[in-house]
Fold:
Amino acid sequence: MSLAATTAGVDQTRALAGAVSGLVHAGDLVLLAGDLGTGKTAFAQGFAAGLGVDEAVTSPTFTLVRTYPGGRLAVNHVDVYRLERLQEAVDLGLAEMVDDDAVTLIEWGDVVVPALPADFLEIRLAYGEGAGDERRLTLRTVGRRWAARRRSLEAALAPWTVA
Ligand SMILES: Nc1ncnc2c1ncn2[C@@H]1O[C@H](COP(=O)(O)OP(=O)(O)OP(=O)(O)O)[C@@H](O)[C@H]1O
Ligand SMILES: [Mg+2]
Structure:
């Protein structure tokens, strides 16, 4: 099952991410998918802020992994765009990073699914029609952890749900 939402600007994507962060449990994995500039990092920013992380979340492109402590849960923010082979994701220990101390968000995570636990929330972002600030978000749950929260997800997304 998947859920669709539309945001009209970056602030709305951050607010939506904040709403989703309210449902997150320790040990959760969230994959962020979508073309360059669709808002994966913006989502991570709103998500971390929603958990009470004070620090500004930046694009982890050059660092690959950054951990932000200080919120309700620690946030591991990962960007695997620069990985060239799946084996690099395995070597990086991505699967082991998903543990009970934190929530892990992976930009371009759909590309490394075989190296990850098969239990996650995938959020796919896409440009809306035209040159404006609209983005289409599609949320899909894989595995049992998130399946149990579908109703809550639906409620959290309601302000941005396409009628
Ligand atoms: N509705 C929207 N949601 C998110 N970002 C938006 C929206 N409208 C405009 N933007 C702009 O789009 C850009 C999204 O950048 P961001 O770095 O979050 O994308 P990204 O998917 O992480 O890119 P990359 O693939 O390079 O990591 C920002 O400049 C943001 O201000
Ligand atoms: Mg990014």
Observations:
- DSSP finds six helices and seven strands in the chain.
